[in-house]
Amino acid sequence: LVPSAFMLFVLVGAVGVVVHLLVLGVMHRLFSLPFEIAQMSAIWLAMTSNFFLNNVITYRHSPLKKRKDLALGLFTFYVACALGAVVNLAVALFVNSYGMHWAIAGLSGGVAGAVWNYSTTKTFTWRKP
Fold first, then answer.
1. Pairing with 120, which of 25, 51, 75, 81 sits 20 to 30 Å away (CA)?
2. What is the pTM of this model?
3. Per-residue model confidence as pLDDT tens digits over 38-78
4. At what angle do helices 67-97 and 35-56 cross, to 10 degrees?
5. Domain ranges in the chain?
């Protein structure tokens, strides 16, 4: 069976994908920023929203509450997701380099980092085995 925490993480991740694609679309299409800059910004904002949503949804039984714990948790979440972000960007740039639509490229990158992010943040941010 799939752990319920992973299913909640995936649900939050789906919200993160929406945040990611909205930010990417606004920055790349509306503001005409280069795809690379828009993709990096979308990754960062989606990571930030996912941290706070995971804290209140996925790990609601043991959320980080104090300001110091939230700050440290957000920092460890960023560190744990850093490789996932690099994979995300690399896959997105690769897909985009073949002329694929920016949304497909962005989504491909997001999916590529999801499993890594779950396993590392579960262990390092919320201290779950």
1. 25
2. 0.78
3. 999 998 999 999 999 999 999 899 899 999 999 999 999 99
4. 140
5. 4-124
